[in-house]
Amino acid sequence: MRSFSLPILSLSLAALLTVSAPAEQPGDLIRTFLRDVMGFSANDVAAVQAGRAVARQMKTREAVDVNIFGAVRLATSAEAFLSQLRDIDLLERRLGITQVGKFHDPPLASDLDGLTLEKDDLDALEDCRPSNCDLQLPAEAMERLRSRVNWRADDARAQAMALFRQIAFEWLEAYRAGGSASLGAYADHSPPISNASEFHLLIAPGDMPVDLPGLIHYLVHYPKSTLKDATDFFYWNKGEFGMKPTTRLNHVVIYPLAGTGAPEPLRYVMATKQLYANHYFSATLELRTIVDDPQAPGRGIYLLYTTKSRVSGLTGFIGTLIRSIVRSRARSGMEQFLTLTRKAVEGR
Length: 348
Hints:
This protein is α+β, with helices and mostly antiparallel strands and 348 residues long. The chain has a single domain (14-115, 190-345), classed as Alpha-D-Glucose-1,6-Bisphosphate, Chain A, domain 4 (2-Layer Sandwich), CATH 3.30.530.20. Helices cover 35% and strands 22% of the residues. The protein has 11 helices and 10 strands. It has helices at residues 14-17, 29-37, 42-49, 78-86, 88-94, 119-124, 139-147, 156-178, 195-202, 213-221, 316-345; strands at residues 54-57, 65-74, 99-102, 185-186, 193-194, 231-239, 246-256, 266-277, 281-292, 301-311. The termini are far apart. Mean pLDDT is 87; it is low at 1-15, 17-26 and 206-210.
């Protein structure tokens, strides 16, 4: 069975667009958005402008949704920060992510050589079956890992790890060829949970105040869709997102906002779409929006970060008891992550 966790990533462009009236001055954009759209107090806004991270829980439609918004000011330029985001493997190591790797273009199987699963996770694969598995896996992957590893051999864990890496690489290649529909469903739950359906619930109509049709269409319909001027890359990471270290495969899209009709201070949005997670998250969408600080051109930006996740274990009687704790930890985790980001980016 799967449990719950605390997410720590993303940022929001859509809501920001709603507060940009033609008569509004650029210097008021962040203040108005944080106050009127995200519900920040005057003290919260002042804290963000002073370089302190502030996060708040966002409204959700279902008990399994955990949506967190955070903001922080960074003493750097948009281009300098974007350069660090492109080197996501280096940046996340500086943020304390235990294992991380960026895939080549095109990806290589060897890009996953540094990935390891926990001993307990490897041992659990021997008896992993649909509706009874400690990891999120499709039924076909469960069967392969159970039947193709010689579990009586001294090197059983090494065999299982090698096969898991192979399967993970096959998932990525399947996604690059056929999109989300090719990823199948997590069979540790009954009924199985469709990867594509769970992601779609994160971006359903009405989920954000203003649609981002080009970006959202691209994320949903990749690789059949195109997005002008956007760049993509893929990476994997393993971090302490909850009670167990969690491994994830991710698709990142960096979208420049010049020429899109967005207000002038908005520069880039970086969307991270989860393709796989072995624990907790059935789907995650992270949105980092980079906004110029008009009071310090070329020397300051605001980072707006929205993490939207579907997290199992938050329904039923036990889920009701722990839901508020999980979301509170998610909020504090966002603030910690943004604080670490500021220190890493500013070289502190």
